[in-house]
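Researcher: Good morning. I'm working through a list of sequences from a screen, and I'd like to move beyond sequence-only analysis. For each chain I'm collecting a predicted structure so we can compare shapes side by side. This is the next one on the list. No need for commentary yet; just the structure.
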Amino acid sequence: MAEEPTAADYRRNRQRREHDLAIFYEQQAPDRANFPTPTDRDRHRDIFLDRLETVIDNVAFGAVLELGTGTGRDAHAVAQRGFSVTGIDLAKANLAATRKLAPTTAVAQASAVELPFADRSFDAVLSFSTLMHISSDDVALALAECGRVLKPNGLAAFGTWGGADTDKILADDHYDPPRFFSLRTDKTWRSLVAAHASVIELTTWKPASSVDHYQWIIARFNERSG
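Model: Good morning. Structure tokens for this chain:
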């Protein structure tokens, strides 16, 4: 029987990591509709959308890319505000759920480190709980891709779970194979984003049921990052 991959294996092998994450989220998709709505997360998302409305002349022409659509809850919220939404995800089941909940959203099965879009296609990027599944070896590729597909001075908002600088696998995860996480301190995450964009703010909060905290960073990808 093949040995179970370690966190180091996942860090080195992006293809294996993405394959196993897709399997995990294919299994999880039917259950996500019953997950509670995270109030703090939704509140910060809506404040970010308020910010976008002030910088985009015509919201109807504002194009937002979501990295990791999940089952479409955030894509639906963005579309409800009048933006054009495109979403990517590794799991086909998540894309199908997004189509159902947010039917105007264009979706693609793709990796955040290899976005299948032309340069300067989007006004903003939004992502929740996706980039922490990308190893610290690869996350710079994802950030560079955001800079490539964003229009000059485009905004991005990334929500991630934070912690000590460490890679880990959730041994007691709900499905098999368990998920890989690359957790980062606030200082490390700010530094990684700042290498590609101008950080506007970094806010954190700790849900009552978690030992880790949640990071919310807003950044502007200017000309030098495109």
